[in-house]
Write a structure and sequence with these properties.
Layout lengths: L3 E5 L2 E8 L6 E5 L16 H7 L5 E4 L20 H14 L8 E5 L3 H12 L2
Parallel strand pairs: 3-4, 3-5
Antiparallel strand pairs: 1-2, 2-4
């Protein structure tokens, strides 16, 4: 599976994608830089992407500042926070046209802020 990149705002964002049709499944890793107990990049979901891609579109993304996705600009104070990371992920879903259709998001060891923010965003639709 080849690396793919898309611009999300001014951030070059790396993702992996396979399959088509059905409801998209989007995988995003949790944790923070240096946390040995968390997934650290889109690559951690390769087996799941391959399994899901037989019946649907499967996407895995490197979070803001992780893997091969760019860091936020140094002067973007919010970009360096969990809130900034979640906002980047939501924009990624929108740019990929997966946000409206995605029904399952697997958060591997998600921080509490990520769970809360995602639920809040869904209620606004």
């Amino acid at each position: 599976m080849e690396n793919q990149f898309i611009d999300v705002g001014a951030i070059r964002t790396r993702y992996l994608e396979a399959g088509s049709g059905g409801v998209p499944v989007v995988f995003v890793h949790g944790g923070t830089i240096g946390d040995a107990n968390s997934a650290s990049s889109a690559d951690d979901f390769l087996p799941l992407i391959q399994a899901c891609s037989a019946t649907r579109r499967a996407i895995s993304v490197d979070r803001l500042g992780h893997g091969y996705t760019d860091n936020p600009p140094e002067d973007d104070l919010e970009g360096w926070t969990m809130d900034g990371s979640v906002k980047h992920f939501i924009r990624f879903l929108e740019v990929m046209n997966a946000g409206q259709r995605a029904r399952k998001i697997r958060l591997h060891h998600p921080p509490a802020g990520c769970r809360y923010r995602h639920r809040l965003h869904r209620r606004k639709r």
